[in-house]
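== Fold encoding ==
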Amino acid sequence: MTATRGFGIDIGGSGIKGALVDLEKGALIGDRFRIDTPRPAAPDAVADVVAQIVAHFGWDGPVGITLPAVVKKGVAHTAANIDPAWIGTDADALFAKRLDRHEDDIAMLNDADAAGMAEIRYGDPAARKGVTTLLTFGTGIGSALFQHGTLMPNTEFGHLEVDGHDAEKKAAASVKDNEGLSYPQWAKRVNRYLSVLENLIWPDLFIVGGGVSKKAEKWVPLLEIRTPVLVASLQNNAGIVGAALAAAEGLEH
C-alpha cells in the first residue's frame, strides 16, 4: 500500500524545520515546526534538535532528512554552513540511533536534491522534460540537476568559481542581507552567476527556490538570461516535502 502521509526534516544553516506531508498533494499537513540550528551545528547537537521535532509531531514512521552537504549512501562528505565535524559522519546511523529507528527508515539526502525532487514530482510539468536545474538561494546556494525528471545527485553548482569568487559567497540570499543589497543590486549578481552556469550546462529550465523565492516578483523579472526561469511552486517547503517523499519511497543516494 502506498503511503499517503510522510514526514520530512530540512536542516539548514540557520534553522531546522520539520512537518507532516501529504504525499498525494505534495503539501504540508498543518504548520511546520522550526528550531534554530544549534551553534556549533555539530552532529550530536543537530540530532538532538531533529529528535525534538520528531517528538513534537509524535511521528513514528520513516523520516526523511536533508543536509546541506554531499550525501552518498547516508554518509556526509562535505559540510556547507554546518560544522565541519559532519564530514565523514554516517548520518543514517546517527539519526537511526537518536530516533530509535532502523537505518532503512531514515532517508538522508542533500537539501537541494530533496527540494528538486519535490518540484519535479509536484511542480510544473515542464520541469520533467529535458535538463532542469533547481537552485535554492538561502544561506548558500544549493543545486539539483535533472535529466527528463531523473536526479543527478550531489551537484555543487553553488561553489562554481565566478569572477574569482565562490559563487555563493557573492550571490546567496544571505549575502544580500549581510551586505544590505537592494533587490536590483542582488539580481545583477544572480544574473551573472546564472549566465556562467547556463554556459556550462545549457539547461532547458531553471527553477529558483529558497526563502527568497517568496519575493520572486522583486528580482526574477530583472534576470536577463536565455534560459527560462520558473519560481519553485513549493517555495521554502520543498526540502521538507522532498525529504518525506524520499523516506516514503526508500530513495537515497
In short: The first strand starts at residue 5 and ends at 11.
